[in-house]
Amino acid sequence: MFFTLKEASIWTGLSPFELLWQTLAVALFSVLLALKTDGVSQYGDMSWTKVFVPLFVANCVNAYFIAIVFIRSVLTGQVKKALQRSGWTLVFLALLSIYHVLLCQKLQGTSDFSHPETMAPLFILLVLTVFRSR
């Protein structure tokens, strides 16, 4: 019914540590989103950028972690494996970050992109995930 940690790691290409960061960020984002949309007095006037900060921070921490793993893999002589793993993860994080930025701009009303244009990085990410899982 649910994915195991190993299956989730294989499907996303992220390590359990990275999945933990993403899960914590989504949980904190959900709390901030609920506070913003409910209009709680001190959180209701918070900008959408501040609501998305946990997701941005998690992506930055994951990128830093990938850089460390890449350097350690290269130093141990596993260059091909390091390039494959870090390449996929950086593409994953880049598309996810672009999606978060576009969605944040769309919610603030500062973007003239249509909804499909805003969701394009997510669609690309889903297609790449399907091809990667085969």
Task: List key phrases describing it.
134 residues; mainly alpha; 5 helices; 81% helix; TM_Fragile-X-F-assoc
Report on the structure:
With 134 residues, this protein is mostly helical. The chain has one domain. Helices cover 81% and strands 0% of the residues. It has 5 helices and no strands. α2 runs antiparallel to α3, α3 (48-75) runs antiparallel to α4 (79-108) and α4 packs antiparallel against α5 (115-133). The protein starts with a helix and ends with a helix. The mean pLDDT is 87.
* Pattern of helices and strands: HHHHH
Q: Tell me the β content.
A: under 5%
Which value, in Å, is the CA radius of gyration? Answer: 17 Å
Q: What oligomeric arrangement do these chains adopt?
A: single chain
The helix-and-strand class reads: mainly alpha
